[in-house]
Design a protein that fits this description.
six-stranded parallel β-sheet, about 475 residues, binds nicotinamide-adenine-dinucleotide, 19 helices, binds uridine-5'-diphosphate-glucuronic acid
Length: about 475
């Protein structure tokens, strides 16, 4: 079995950076070189302000950077030196061409494979860490072999090793994963390569939690895992709409059904809608795959999970407008939270950007407060996700702004909408916020985060997802 002493990771993003930092930390005998085409990202990884925020990440990077962990743009050297090359590049949804809006764009992955093929001189194990459509490993292997005419099939082994970390808990998830999944070709060379990778993880993960399968099961399991998780959120969100009509309370329903161990309690938190770079992308990819393999009914089943998520975001925004007397034009609305979940500065596909768009379309004045999201990220997300930028929207800067000060954000506003479940939002002085707002002061809780009774006593008109609106009004108003 090949012994792994040098690892290269192509792609220093949300997955590549933290994953390799943890491997370097837990395997001091392995040299880990993370490479990326982006000089900006590499520079940030080598600085005191890392390019991503993850609890616990700074500490680990500080411990190993410069020892057995490096970040650089020296892609070719990294490949040459490595026994194993992790490919951890982004695989977003295609925005043009065949499969537009559904299929994964594999351009970055193919470019990385072609670079490996061109540069590699000795046998290599190539590990697909990016999330990919099932059977992508076959394409990678064919590229590797096509460039190396003298190579034997066994000189290049492609493994699938999808990543299951969630942002905000990445370090915890990497240090003690529920499982590590490794797929390989079921040949002696393929199985041997998988065993070599098992030994790397076995430095910090119990072997019984390392699952080995064939390549296609591993690739497909990643898409299916995300589809199942997202499906639970869409299921409970669909029920939240029914709860609002029937005076049932969705959190009580979630608790009641989640107590059955066959259902389980996690991922039943009704919300303004799931966000993040992967759930929607991976389900759309699954839908595309099903259609491509002639399974339209299966495709339609999974497409519904994304449709329900779109419905929930739209429903929340409509409710806001309807509740505020059917108009928000010219009204200042404070959005608390722009990250797609707490403990990350990531805004990709965040529900908040869709709510912002709906409010901007009504010409509300949107003031955002988020502890970690930068102004640059706000503009980027508005432009690339919902197509709003300074060229398409007159005086955009007058209509939307971002601040790290919640009190400044809420002052003179007609409403606060909680869109991210940041812990800090629970600790705010809501009396102070209320006093500074226009009256009636509305609070729309998209995360069931705060104490609604307490807020109603202060005087807020509270709307919470999955609770009957009349019941959530201040006592006077609900009569
Ligand atoms: P990301 O956009 O944060 O990072 C990708 C990095 O790859 C970027 O820094 C980019 O510059 C670099 N890159 C692209 N093409 C390159 C090339 N040819 N050579 C060198 N570098 C290149 O993406 P991410 O969030 O880390 O996701 C990476 C993959 O992991 C995706 O397939 C995603 O679906 C999957 N994934 C993501 C998460 C998550 O929480 N973000 C979790 C599990 C799996
Ligand atoms: C998700 C999966 O949880 C990871 O296992 C997977 O590796 C990753 O996608 C990926 O492939 O990228 P992530 O998107 O980082 O991780 O975060 P989650 O905790 O799954 O949350 C996703 C979204 O669902 C967030 O917007 C969150 O607020 C929302 N959510 C989550 C709910 O609305 N309700 C819940 O009960 C749980």
């Amino acid at each position: 079995m090949p012994k792994i002493t040098n690892v290269c990771c192509i792609g220093a993003g949300y997955v590549g950076g933290p994953t390799m930092a943890v491997i370097a930390y837990k395997c001091p005998h392995i040299q880990v070189n993370v490479v990326d085409i982006s000089e900006r990202i590499v520079k940030a990884w080598n600085s005191d302000v890392l390019p991503i925020y993850e609890p616990g990440l700074d500490d680990i990077v500080k411990k190993v950077r410069g020892k057995n962990l490096t970040f650089s743009t020296a892609i070719e050297q990294g490949i040459k030196d490595a026994d194993v090359i992790f490919v951890c590049v982004n695989t977003p949804t295609k925005v043009h061409g065949i499969g537009q809006g559904f299929a994964s764009n594999l351009t970055n992955l193919e470019k990385a494979a072609r670079t490996i093929a061109r540069v590699a001189t000795a046998p290599k194990i190539v590990v697909e860490k990016s999330t990919v459509p099932v059977q992508t490993a076959d394409a990678i292997r064919r590229i590797l072999l096509a460039h190396n005419k003298d190579a034997k099939k066994s000189d290049f082994q492609v493994l699938s090793n999808p990543e299951f970390l969630a942002e905000g808990t990445a370090i915890k998830d990497l240090l003690s994963p529920s499982r590590v999944l490794i797929g390989s070709e079921q040949t002696p060379a393929g199985i041997e390569a998988a065993e070599a990778l098992v030994e790397v993880y076995a430095n910090f993960v119990p072997k019984k939690q390392i699952i080995t399968t064939n390549l296609w099961s591993s690739e497909l399991s990643k898409l299916v895992a995300n589809a199942f998780l997202a499906q639970r959120i869409s299921s409970i969100n669909s029920i939240s709409a029914l709860c609002e009509k029937t005076k049932a309370n969705v959190y009580e329903v979630a608790n009641a059904i989640g107590s059955d161990p066959r259902i389980g309690s996690r991922f039943l938190q009704a919300s303004v809608g799931f966000g993040g770079s992967c759930f929607q992308k991976d389900i759309l990819n699954l839908v595309y795959l099903c259609k491509s393999f002639g399974l339209p009914e299966v495709a339609e089943y999974w497409a519904q999970v994304v449709k329900m998520n779109d419905y929930q975001k739209d429903r929340f925004a409509r409710n806001m407008v309807k509740t505020m007397f059917n108009t928000v034009t010219g009204k200042k609305i404070a959005l608390f939270g722009f990250a797609f979940k707490k403990d990350t500065g990531d805004t990709r596909e965040t529900a908040a950007v869709y709510i912002s768009k709906s409010l901007l379309d009504e010409r509300a004045v949107v003031a955002v407060h988020d502890p970690k999201v930068t102004e640059e990220k706000l503009w980027e997300e508005l432009k690339y996700t919902v197509g709003i930028d300074k060229d398409s929207f007159d005086n955009l800067e007058k209509y939307i702004s971002i601040s790290t000060d919640p009190y400044k954000t809420a002052a003179d506003s007609h409403a606060i909408a909680i869109l991210t479940e940041w812990d800090s939002f629970k600790e705010l002085d809501y009396q102070r916020l209320f006093d500074s707002m226009k009256k009636p002061a509305f609070l729309f809780d998209g995360r069931n985060l705060v104490d609604h009774e307490k807020l109603r006593k202060i005087g807020f008109q509270v709307y919470a997802i999955g609770k009957t609106f009349k019941d959530s009004l201040a006592p006077m108003e609900s009569k």
